[in-house]
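Entry 14. Structure prediction run on the chain below.
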Amino acid sequence: MHESTVTAAPAFGELERYRAELTAYAYRMLGSPFDAEDAVQDAFVRAWRARDRFEGRAAVRSWLYRIATNVCLDMLKGRQRRIRPMELGPAVEPVESNLNTRSETTWIEPIPEHLIAPERDPADLAVERESIRLAFVAALQHLPARQRAVLILREVLRWEASEVAELLETSVASVNSALQRARTTLAARNVSSSDPLPQLSEADRSLLERYVAAFERYDMDALTSLIRQDATQSMPPYDMWLSGRDDIFAWWVGPGNGCRGSRVIPVENANGRPAFGQYKPSPQGGYEPWALQVLELRDGRISELTFFLDTKRLFPLFGLPPQLDA
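Output returned:
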């Protein structure tokens, strides 16, 4: 994290250069791109108002992370942690009566790559993608807020323990203890940020092209060869999740049959994973937004499908049009 010291108060334009990395940090802390953008904007406002008190012996980046951390800690006070449907209980049968919403539940939301990693080095980007994958961000939400900050700063951003201790105004021993407890929690949930995600291979890209074509045809035979037998599916804000390709297909051809005839549009990565905008046929003609699909791949097949149904907020965030013509 080391950088040269800055002796003058930063100009507002200098703050802007840190927006993407601060957004990625705030997203890991908060689990929502909208909350993360609000947090970074709040941090910039606080930094600008406090610029006259900026101490030149501190680097601008460290100073901003201190402010952003405090904003995130403030935002997390008294809030429920964000979750995924799989954390609410076991998979259920693919029947419509299991399709429920929970007003008290707040879901993990996906983030597009352009908000967190514009023009990044490919090696750095691989690490970035791994540490924002949905399962990892969901696991982070199980950590107390300060533990969460310690783990992200130490394990993901590679800050020194002394730097984190200074930022959080605590001791190195306290930081090391918090990091150990955080690691234990994540290990129990079988997630890690240490292994960078490889780039999509040509075979992966071909698989995704075949998936789009097969899904638009609603060809279950073709989809069988593309989706793992042990795949899972979830559809926030519904709490239902399905385990196994047979149950997924039973849903698609049963209660979910309205997806037949959909258009599927590739978009930029969401959480480092392939993502698509799905539009269902509209009774008024053309196609209307239905879901942002985020896919996980494993061993050459699709292992997880998450259909985020909050299209009013997510489609504009990912640059998707409000409707498609026939």
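Residues 120-196 form a domain with the Arc Repressor Mutant, subunit A fold (CATH 1.10.10.10).
Filed with the rest of this week's runs.
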